[in-house]
């Protein structure tokens, strides 16, 4: 039996929320930097892996949406996609989504392999780091995954 829980109503952040946010922010940024660097045996940068990942989750996505999701300008995203296309990792096709002015982007089979390799490297690195923690610490991180996912995906109350 599945029980659906209604999230609590939004509330004003407390001083405890602010203190926790102040502790989490640098840790999460540091972890993100480490994960971007851990792409062993790949010519891809961390940023390229992130862009490939976005495209793989949303085949047919356009430059403007990619740029918006990554927080960069459309010309910068277009340059990044140019490099991925030149490497054979993505393809562009005009008007697939019905708008002939739009250019849709998709990951190629080679791009999928490169993305899988990068993800495997990152997962292996993170698993190695988790292996340095006690079982209680790992359990605490496991318990934090769901609420952190809600924050990242925007499902958490605001």
What does this structure look like?
With 158 residues, the protein is mainly alpha-helical. The protein has a domain at 42-129: Arc Repressor Mutant, subunit A. Helix content is 61%, strand content 6%. The chain is built from six helices and two strands, in the order ααααββαα. The chain has helices spanning 15-37, 46-57, 63-70, 74-86, 109-130, 135-153, and strands at residues 90-94, 103-107. The chain has a two-stranded antiparallel ribbon. A hairpin with an 8-residue loop joins strand 1 (90-94) and strand 2. Helix 2 (46-57) packs across helix 5 (109-130). The longest helix has 23 residues, at 15-37. 14% of the residues are buried. The mean pLDDT is 86.
Question: What structural keywords apply?
Answer:
single chain, 158 residues, mainly alpha, Arc Repressor Mutant, subunit A, two-stranded antiparallel ribbon, 6% strand, globular
């Amino acid at each position: 039996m599945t029980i659906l829980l209604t999230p609590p109503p939004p509330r004003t952040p407390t001083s405890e929320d602010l203190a926790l946010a102040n502790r989490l922010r640098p840790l999460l940024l540091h972890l993100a930097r480490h994960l971007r660097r851990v792409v062993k045996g790949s010519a891809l940068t961390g940023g390229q892996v992130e862009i490939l990942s976005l495209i793989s989750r949303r085949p047919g996505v356009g430059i403007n949406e990619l740029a918006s999701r990554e927080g960069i300008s459309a010309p910068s995203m277009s340059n990044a996609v140019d490099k991925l296309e030149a490497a054979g990792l993505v393809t562009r096709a005009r008007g697939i989504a019905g708008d002939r002015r739009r250019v849709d982007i998709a990951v190629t089979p080679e791009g999928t392999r490169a993305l899988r390799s990068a993800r495997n490297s990152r997962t292996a690195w993170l698993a190695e780091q988790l292996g340095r923690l006690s079982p209680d610490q790992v359990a605490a991180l496991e318990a934090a995954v769901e609420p952190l996912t809600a924050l990242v995906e925007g499902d958490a109350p605001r």
